[in-house]
Design goal:
The protein has an 8-stranded mixed sheet, with helices on both faces. By secondary structure, the protein is of the alpha/beta class. The protein has helices at residues 14-18, 41-49, 69-87, 97-108, 124-136, 151-159, 176-188, 212-224, 248-251, 263-267, 279-293, 298-310, 313-338, 364-373, 403-422; strands at 55-56, 119-122, 142-147, 163-170, 173-174, 193-198, 228-232, 256-261, 273-276, 344-345, 353-357, 376-377, 379-380, 393-397. The structure holds 4'-deoxy-4'-aminopyridoxal-5'-phosphate. Residues 60, 124-126, 150, 152, 199, 204, 232, 234, 261, 263, 268, 273 line the site of 4'-deoxy-4'-aminopyridoxal-5'-phosphate.
Length: 423
């Protein structure tokens, strides 16, 4: 028997399309849906951006330095001593009941009145995105999402071969008339729109918040077209003035799936989030969760639950907000001071991100290696669109670096942009 390396890819196969069939002998075995799975540009950046000399404005890592680690470690030791045999055991796919009750109290801050039975605990809200897409999307189904949108959501949609149609936004968030047009266009083309995915508060990556006046209109449009709304709200409690906005879910419990998370308000590494589903959807969601993970980690859920019942978690969120507000102030004033003419950016009132538009002729993706050489990194805008737009945009995350580092990063970035504009 002779072996002559991996077989030639069949015409039209993934191996052939990928154009690198020599690298992976399994290419012809992958399911068709894996064709949409590509490494996110942001993940690819992480390695270079995490070198200490580089000011990274690229990743959206929460700044955890304000967490009370001493008392947390006491709490965790007590959890093991008092409740270890439960904490270290399997639990239900639905999630720990006490935590689901506490989650309902948190959501009440945004006007949501929910029953704990309708909450399903997930491994971060990213798992919620995956489950919701798995439940609702067949290959080719259309999903509407703001343009730009959260890169992890685009990844989930691609993994299930949904087709993303972006809907324009402005400084007040998603534009209702653009939503109407997108729906009309899809209907003309005979496409099935399954849901609108939206991040109403302190948007990732755009940094804007959906105006309260637009909320009812958006819900009405979706209801009239039979389109479900997926409301992704990990930043809702991180408004710098302490303001919260009424959740979409609060006004239309039967047509909104709400995704929440403890990643930005407590600890991202615990990977605890949740889905609040319309009652009718909950059963299927629990089944989807069960087949994905059997159950979310009991230990981590009990850590979160204890933290909520023993710590001043609202005070802790206030401290986080204050830290992020200082960083937002630092980055905005540095942008004002250093950026060359022709650049514009959003002015976030909460959350982690500023969305910058650069002058025509500058390509943020092509510029990135030169920025990294100048020791600053950002996320280029193209990663936040499913359709190749975004080359004149970039996302700057101000959540992690100190205000001094942010100012230095923006100074370096402005220098790179200036030389780019001279080219
Ligand atoms: N949605 C949005 C808009 C996000 O920004 C993030 C995290 N960056 C997530 C969902 C996922 O968060 P997690 O899985 O940590 O809850």
């Amino acid at each position: 028997m002779t072996t002559s390396g991996p077989p030639e890819p069949k015409p039209g196969s993934q191996a052939n399309q990928a154009g690198h069939h020599n690298l992976d002998p399994h290419l012809d075995r992958y399911a068709a849906r894996t064709a949409g799975m590509t490494a996110s540009e942001i993940r690819a950046l992480f390695a270079v951006a995490s070198r200490p000399e580089v000011v990274s404005l690229a990743g959206g890592m929460p700044n955890l330095t304000a967490l009370p680690l001493d008392s947390l470690s006491t709490q965790i030791a007590e959890l093991v001593a008092e409740d270890g045999l439960v904490a270290l055991q399997y639990g239900s796919a639905h999630g720990v009941p006490t935590l689901r009750e506490q989650i309902c109290e948190i959501m009440a801050m945004e006007g949501i009145s929910a029953h704990p039975d309708d909450v399903v605990v997930t491994v971060g809200s990213q798992m919620g995105l995956d489950m919701v897409t798995r439940l609702f999307c067949d290959p080719g189904d259309v999903v509407l999402a703001e343009g730009p949108s959260y890169v992890g959501a685009l990844g989930s949609f691609a993994a299930y071969q949904a087709q993303v149609v972006h809907v324009a936004m402005d400084d007040e968030g998603l534009i209702p008339s653009a939503l109407r047009e997108a729906l009309a266009e899809a209907e003309r083309a005979g496409q099935r729109v399954k849901f609108l995915y939206t991040i109403p508060n302190f948007h990732n990556p755009a940094g804007v918040t959906l105006a309260v006046e637009r909320r009812a209109e958006i819900l009405e449009i979706c209801a009239a077209h039979g389109v479900l709304v997926i409301e992704d709200n990990p930043y809702g409690l991180l408004g710098f003035d302490g303001q919260t906005y009424p959740a979409l879910r609060a006004s239309d419990p039967d047509n909104v799936v709400y995704l929440g998370s403890f990643s930005k308000t407590f600890a991202s590494g615990l990977r605890v989030g949740w889905v609040l589903a319309p009652h009718a959807v909950r059963e299927k969601l629990v089944l989807a969760a069960e087949s994905a993970t059997l159950c979310p980690p009991t230990f981590n859920q009990l850590v979160v639950s204890r933290y909520l019942s023993t710590h001043d978690w609202k005070g802790q969120i206030k401290t986080f907000r204050e830290n992020y507000r200082q960083r937002r102030d630092a980055i905005l004033s540095a942008l004002e001071q250093h950026m060359p003419p022709g650049c514009s950016w959003t002015k976030p009132d909460g959350g982690f991100y500023v969305w910058v538009t650069v002058p025509e002729g500058v390509d943020t993706k092509a510029m990135l290696p030169r920025a990294v050489t100048a020791r600053v990194a950002y996320a280029s805008g193209t990663g936040f669109y499913a359709d190749g737009l975004g080359s004149r945009q970039m996302r700057l995350s101000y959540c992690y670096p100190t205000p001094e580092r942010l100012r230095e990063g923006v100074r370096r970035l402005a220098g790179v942009l200036e030389s780019e504009m001279e080219l």
